[in-house]
């Protein structure tokens, strides 16, 4: 018998396409699954042919809610799918879970977009720490991804984050030298919720900055501890390229521009935001 995969559908916003998402999940060729619906919203009436467990989520704290769902799940692999994300073919789960045959892989991320309008130059790649730090807002996302249970048990999500719980998790795991794979064959059709207008949009933007700044700043990597870890990995694997990537990651970490937010920083960010400039970009 194959390993069980627990598919947790995360409902953070109203989704008129939930029935289609459920139909696509239950139509997957990978049949050894359990399906859970994690939501802080009222649950719409669903067809009886979809056996799923409904879990009430902690509002505004997705990491805490996912920890709760993962603890109740039975699967060896824990798949998170946004309720607005529609798997595009019956082999979507195969594309995600196939990488776990490699014991070094801690998580696999798909991609949420319209794959008919966006083409990708490669099917999959391994995300390392330098790649993550080059653009922290890309990479692993709880729109569509899968986690190895034993890694999550060692590294649960941070309960206190209102955003970016997936990015913070990826940063911790990558910093330890574990592997995250990005698999574009696991792309889902995804329409993000409409951005709020005006001041509400800035508050959402600033919350994202605060979330990133809680774990990413110019001191995100301690040079001595990180250097020992990178040198040790390069020595054990006899791979000097690990040293080069380690140096690149440290240099990238020194460029991070997320700030906790004194009054001057908030005012500066607000001015730039309403001018259409991104305060969070690296200088």
- The CATH architecture category of the largest domain equals Alpha-Beta Complex
Compute the number of structural domains: 3
* Rounded Rg: 19 Å
Q: What is the number of helices?
A: 10
Tell me the major beta sheet: 8 strands, mixed
Give me the CATH superfamily of the largest domain: Spore Coat Polysaccharide Biosynthesis Protein SpsA, Chain A
Helix content: 25-40%
Mean pLDDT: 84
Q: How would you explain this protein's 3D organization?
A:
This protein has ten helices and eleven strands. An eight-stranded mixed β-sheet has the order 3-2-1-4-9-6-10-8. It has a three-stranded mixed β-sheet with strand order 5-11-7. It has three domains: 5-190, Spore Coat Polysaccharide Biosynthesis Protein SpsA, Chain A; 198-218 and 256-274, no CATH class; 223-253. With 283 residues, the chain is of the alpha/beta class.
SSE layout and pairings?
Elements: E1 5-11, H1 18-26, E2 33-39, E3 53-56, H2 62-72, E4 77-82, E5 85-87, H3 92-97, E6 105-109, E7 112-113, E8 124-127, H4 129-134, E9 144-148, H5 149-154, H6 165-175, E10 179-183, E11 188-190, H7 198-213, H8 223-237, H9 241-253, H10 263-274
Parallel strand pairs: 1-2, 1-4, 2-3, 6-10, 7-11
Antiparallel strand pairs: 4-9, 5-11, 6-9, 8-10
Helix pairs in contact: 8-9
């Amino acid at each position: 018998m194959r390993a069980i995969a627990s598919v947790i559908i995360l409902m953070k916003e109203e989704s008129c396409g939930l029935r289609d998402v459920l139909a696509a999940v239950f139509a997957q060729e990978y049949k050894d699954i359990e399906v859970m619906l994690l939501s802080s919203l009222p649950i719409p009436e669903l067809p009886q042919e979809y056996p799923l467990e409904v879990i009430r989520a902690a509002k505004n704290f997705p990491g805490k809610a996912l920890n709760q769902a993962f603890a109740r799940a039975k699967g060896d692999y824990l798949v998170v799918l946004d309720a607005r994300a529609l798997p595009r073919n019956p082999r979507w789960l195969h594309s995600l879970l196939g990488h776990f045959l490699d014991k070094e892989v801690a998580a696999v991320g798909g991609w949420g977009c319209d794959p008919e309008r966006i083409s990708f130059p490669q099917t999959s790649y391994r995300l390392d720490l330098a790649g993550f730090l080059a653009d922290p807002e890309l990479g692993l996302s709880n729109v569509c991804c899968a986690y190895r249970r034993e890694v999550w048990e060692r590294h649960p999500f941070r309960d206190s984050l209102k955003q970016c719980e997936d990015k913070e998790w990826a940063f911790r795991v990558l910093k330890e030298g574990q592997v995250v794979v990005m698999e574009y064959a696991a792309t889902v059709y995804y329409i993000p919720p409409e951005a709020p207008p005006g001041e509400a949009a800035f508050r959402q933007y600033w919350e994202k900055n605060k979330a990133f700044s809680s774990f990413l700043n110019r001191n995100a990597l301690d040079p001595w501890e990180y250097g020992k870890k990178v040198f040790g990995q390069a020595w054990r694997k006899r791979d000097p390229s690990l040293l080069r990537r380690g140096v690149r990651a440290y240099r990238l970490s020194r460029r991070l521009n997320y700030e906790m937010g004194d009054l001057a920083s908030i005012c500066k960010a607000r001015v730039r935001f309403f001018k259409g400039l991104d305060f969070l970009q690296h200088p």
